[in-house]
Amino acid sequence: MDMQIALLLGQDGLTNGAIYALLALALVLVFAVTRVIFIPQGEFVAFGALTLVSLQAGKLPGTLWLLLALGTLIALIDGALALRNRQFRRGLWIVSVYCVLPLLLAGTLFAIPAATLPLPLQVGLALMLVVPLGPMIYRLAYQPIAEASVLVLLIVSVAVHVTLMGIGLLFFGAEGSRTLPFSDVSFSLGDALLQGQAVLVVVTSVLLIMALYFFFERTIYGKALRATAMNRTGARLMGISGTLAGMLSFTLAATIGAFSGILISPITTIYYDSGFLIGLKGFVGAIIGGLASYPVAAAGAILVGLLESYSSFWASAFKEVIVFTLIIPVLLWRSLKTHHVEEE
Amino acid sequence: MSELAGADERIVVLEVSSLSVSYGKVDALHGIALKVHRGEIVTVIGPNGAGKTTLLCALIGLLPVRGDIVYLGEQQDGGRSVEKLVRQGMTLVPEKRELFSEMSVKDNLLLGAFDRYRAGHRDQLETIDQVFEIFPRLRERRAQMAGTLSGGERQMLAMGRALMAKPRLLLLDEPSLGLAPLVIKEIFRTITQLKKLGVAILLVEQNARAALQVADYGYVLETGRLSLEGPSRDLLTDPRVIESYLGLGGRH
Amino acid sequence: MKHAAHTTTVLLLFITALALAPLLLPEFYITLLNYIGLYAIVALGLVLLTGVGGLTSFGQAAFVGLGAYTSAYLTTVHGVSPWLTLPAGLLATALIALSIGIVTLRLSGHFLPLGTIAWGISLYYLFGNLEALGGHTGISGIPSLQVLDLEIKSGRAFFYLIWVVLLVFVLATRNLLDSREGRAIRALRGGSLMAEAMGVNTPRAKIVIFTIAALYASVSGWLYAHLQRFVNPTPFSLTQGIEYLFMGVVGGVAHVWGAIIGAGLITILKQWLQDWLPKLFGQSGNFEVIVFGLLMIFVLHRARDGVWPIITRWWPQRPTQARVVVEAAPLARRPMPKPGSLLLEIKDATKRFGGLVANERVSFSVMAGEVMALIGPNGAGKSTMFNGISGVDPLTSGTVIFRGQRVESLPARDIARLGMSRTFQHVRLLAGMSVIENVAIGAHLRGNKSFIAAACRTDRKEEARLLREAAAQIERCGLAEQMYEAAGSLPLGKQRIVEIARALAADPCLLLLDEPAAGLRYMEKQALADLLRRLRDEGIGILLVEHDMDFVMGLADRVLVMEFGRKLAAGLPEEIQRNPAVVEAYLGGVE
């Protein structure tokens, strides 16, 4: 391996690592706040990318139907509840948020040719289609059993993951696709050629991480989420309900997932089931951070990206084997660090 | 805190009757009846394990109850929840303090006003100043992580955080727990100050003397039932209080 | 007993129907039943692991693959007999399961399932990329099984093999669960703290059930390889691993028969959905996972115990089969220390949680044949002291000398072995298990029969002695009438008494009782006090934390008062009651 290849692989690894880091942060966040191990994170990556592909191809993305269906379901459940408690204003609010807004979005999509819109608007539309699925799924699948054990929530996560994956196949078919590149620019740095898209991915990831940092450190809602993660009872006594924190963290995770998918779709072919493996690599990073530390999780995720990139050079067939076997020494290291674990 | 108009000292904030709480098949509390008026400190004292904490958890909506609770003139029904009660101005300072230990004192206080923020109030900075007036120590420590505070400061922060919600009824669970006598004295002096702000306080304490000295009215809770009640002055000298604590009942 | 008879009838009917199935059903259904059997073997392992032990694995399919590939490789490449590849596959599986288990099982609950997802993927890609294993095309031409001259080749012949293996495994699993080691496994769900305090080596128990589950899966893989006579990586993917867990959860993961029900339901549903969904959607693909996922979410929301408990509602069973054999020989007892001799000595015990000091340089001792009471206001550090002494949460510094031996750095289970037994402030019983089974956990260290002995039922003599001991302790504590009731159905006060009976079943010389009288009525308290006095007269030392002062003062020989984690006073009950410092500590005061 010469220097040029090494740099190229490093660039690849860093690009993927940045995405894994974003996902790892979202996973740590969701786990800390809701105790949900968010396996379906990967589906948001795939949905984000493939929704943008559909928009650019001038097709109606299947995620729209999912959005309408979940919205209607929630409106029916929560609306009925509000009616029974005679909270008519609340009922109206629920119907407008969960039914009218998605319908307006659908109307927009029918009315204007999305394929001809400028890229930022397309990205915005794709996010508007995919991100609300996050809190909706929280409301339907997790909130009714929010007090269940981590293991039950994990099994639910796996169930949500397979459901969404099946739905992904239904909507987007088995073929993979790429979106149009955001930028064709490339720079040369010494011997190496820096691809504009790769730089964009890394820079955007860093910006997103900074935005997250700002959100958690400076806004009262961000602080409320951290408070819930630290002390659930304490937070509840301040009026920060578990449902609110759950919806909020799922919204963030869905945003991060969908946006990550959109970022990498010009450089990676995305299939309906690609998200799962991408998400899991974020997971390996999150586990390195013990599902608790944000910086360690991010660093771990970048390590995963680099390891993957270099192992694809030496033993490309065993790339996945190497990445996922990494978890064993990591777990060993964590188990040696943990002296005593007792779930009270 | 707008209906000062009536200016009637005896407005009932909380009225509880025949309240029972069970864990599974066991009654933890049985037939509890008590009343808290505006601007009044009412204390429930009793030995360890009598059900004092259970009572407060039940009132704030953390535990399901049977019986009647009327809060601010409103009968509480099945739709009662912690979040709703917090919105209506009931706040609990829990026995374990439940602080956000990896956050600064100031952030802890800020989150005390989370629900007011959500409801559209933006007066947090002034409220924080008021809380700092009451607990000057917290001002000194405002940048420090809550987890690094001393026991007394933790209790002050827990109370300060609760005050950030501008409560109408403050439920205090064993504020003296684990604190040194001098600190207890300081905490209880603050509790009497709060009374002057017009907050109704329900104070649950094992430290009977300290509680009765600051309270207007007291109840004695023994194994899930209220065994005695009366103006605190009378309870302070009642020998039956001592008996219920030290098990002298059967021997003299 | 009528219910037991019902159960036996149903079971016999089921076996008869199975035996007749190949003679009556067409080939298609036999194939389906063969797959149900193969899947149920794997799901059965999950019952043991997840339903009983509370550990979750999504990676069982990888173990199936290990069994299948070991046999496929050895028979086709090296011409080894399939009967030899079975133990080879089991050995390979056991080695891998042990090493994975050791790495992940020490961590908190969710790391194991996450680990299983990762290495499930990893092994799948390994199977698909190793040239020697035929890559993604797999290995074909695997020989069929032969017994003497008889070749087990047809689906119908294989049917008997699969279902006999499955039923044997079901029987062995049931036997195992109904034994000393089985109770230890079932105790894992109640948190390892209690199990450790009763002397159970919980990490070992976890690794054992993880390995057993992996071995079941491996056997299923071996059968699969010789039934199909062809293997490729697909059936061993993570997706299949997830499906195995779904089978367990849908069927009822806490019940051995739930594995068969779950495997049956999911397999039949899958068959049906694979026919219908592509027609419905007008395209081909694995759409059945959508339905499976939704079904799982529904089951976990609405019927978390799965289908089996719903079925058994038609013929309700008693919670246990454990029955006491009165004529069993009593267990050997440990020699008791002389009354009045030093039993436990605590010197300068200190416990810190971060910056908080819960115990600070506390020293005291307990003699054999005395009741020592530890009292003090809330938060004085009494329960912390208990946890320090019993090794559940070791002290930061200081020494604990129990029967002349320093124990402050020993794990709880080793301290229990020396004759210290305890109860918990928050009752730690297994609510679904009968009182007698709960109490028998206390006698864990008084038996030594292994998992294998339990599965083969060669442990019955010891088991009878253990149950007899448990029954004797229950009677002694006055709970004979509730012996076969589920522990969770008793009132809290009675549950505390069950905890005492469980502690006594360990044949202790020192009893640590954490608030034993809480929740008891007056008469029950009297009975408890009488029991404790009798125990004291037998020479047992009792260390007691209790809030009911009437109870403490009437019972204790000596009293130690703690406040702020420190020793405030010590002495006879009368002295303590008159001690002004104690009165102050309890009633408090501002001036």
UniProtKB/TrEMBL annotation, chain A:
Q: Where in the cell is it found?
A: Cell membrane
Per the UniProt record, which residue ranges are transmembrane? 20-42, 62-83, 92-113, 119-138, 150-172, 192-216, 237-263, 283-306, 313-333
Domain of life according to the entry: Bacteria
Is the keyword Cell membrane in the record?
yes
What are the GO BP annotations of this UniProt entry?
amino acid transport
This protein's GO cellular component annotations are: plasma membrane
Q: What is its main location?
A: membrane
What family, per the record? Belongs to the binding-protein-dependent transport system permease family. LivHM subfamily.
Q: What is this protein called?
A: LIV-I protein H
- Species annotation: Candidatus Accumulibacter vicinus
| Gene this protein is translated from | livH_2
TrEMBL record, chain B:
Q: Which GO terms describe its molecular function?
A: ATP binding; ATP hydrolysis activity; branched-chain amino acid transmembrane transporter activity
> Does the keyword rRNA processing feature in the UniProt annotation?
no
Kindly give the SMART domains that the UniProt entry links to this protein: AAA
Instruction: Identify the domain of life.
Output: Bacteria
| Annotated ABC transporter domain residues | 14-248
State the family named in the UniProt similarity comment for this chain.
Answer: Belongs to the ABC transporter superfamily.
- The name under which this protein is listed is LIV-I protein F
TrEMBL record, chain C:
Family matches, as Pfam families: ABC_tran (PF00005), BCA_ABC_TP_C (PF12399), BPD_transp_2 (PF02653)
- Write out the entry's keywords from A to Z: ATP-binding, Cell membrane, Hydrolase, Membrane, Nucleotide-binding, Transmembrane, Transmembrane helix, Transport
GO MF entries? ATP binding; ATP hydrolysis activity; branched-chain amino acid transmembrane transporter activity
* Mode of membrane association: Multi-pass membrane protein
The portions of this protein that span the membrane are 29-49, 86-104, 157-177, 207-225, 245-268, 280-300
Chief localization: membrane
Domain ABC transporter: start-end pairs: 344-589
Where can this protein be found?
Cell membrane
The protein's Enzyme Commission number: 3.6.3.25
Judging by the UniProt lineage, the source's domain of life is Bacteria
Root EC class:
hydrolase
> In the UniProt record, which is one GO cellular component term?
plasma membrane
Q: Which organism is it from?
A: Candidatus Accumulibacter vicinus
State the name under which the record lists this protein.
Sulfate/thiosulfate import ATP-binding protein CysA
Which first-to-last residue range defines the signal peptide? none
Keyword Cytoplasm part of the UniProt annotation: no
Name the CDD domains for this protein. Answer: ABC_Mj1267_LivG_branched, TM_PBP1_LivM_like
